[in-house]
């Protein structure tokens, strides 16, 4: 479930730190979740995601306070960005960008794939994800329970090594000259 994310329209916050999200963060997570989303996740949903060894759960912290988080689960070779939230008081300051960049720094590998769902009405989040290489590839009808809004399904793919090499070679002929 992705519903809100920020885009940089104000300078990033100095002193922002991204770290692993832990069970001790859950009271702050639940508070942000309730302020940020019309249909917030339950405590049990967060506990389940934190218990998965293959997932990546991140916290954005400013001056000792949690201001955002990201939940990403792994299914085979696909990373599913399940939840990105930033406290409404701190949105549009680069926090969601910092969380995504930290995720990609940890998980990007040749052939990696990421997917997420986002509300079509959440234009700032869509623009943010597009800046990081996500593209709309599908639609889930009536996905959101609060208002039955559809979800756009977005994907980001990292080329595998041979695929990246073939793409580079495809632009050059056997003599190394660029093809037109």
Automatic annotation (TrEMBL):
<keyword id="KW-0808">Transferase</keyword>
<dbReference type="InterPro" id="IPR050680">
    <property type="entry name" value="YpeA/RimI_acetyltransf"/>
</dbReference>
<keyword id="KW-0963">Cytoplasm</keyword>
<dbReference type="GO" id="GO:0008080">
    <property type="term" value="F:N-acetyltransferase activity"/>
</dbReference>
<protein>
    <submittedName>
        <fullName>Ribosomal-protein-alanine N-acetyltransferase</fullName>
    </submittedName>
</protein>
<feature type="domain" description="N-acetyltransferase">
    <location>
        <begin position="16"/>
        <end position="159"/>
    </location>
</feature>
<comment type="similarity">
    <text>Belongs to the acetyltransferase family. RimI subfamily.</text>
</comment>
<dbReference type="Pfam" id="PF00583">
    <property type="entry name" value="Acetyltransf_1"/>
</dbReference>
<dbReference type="InterPro" id="IPR006464">
    <property type="entry name" value="AcTrfase_RimI/Ard1"/>
</dbReference>
<dbReference type="InterPro" id="IPR000182">
    <property type="entry name" value="GNAT_dom"/>
</dbReference>
<dbReference type="InterPro" id="IPR016181">
    <property type="entry name" value="Acyl_CoA_acyltransferase"/>
</dbReference>
<keyword id="KW-0012">Acyltransferase</keyword>
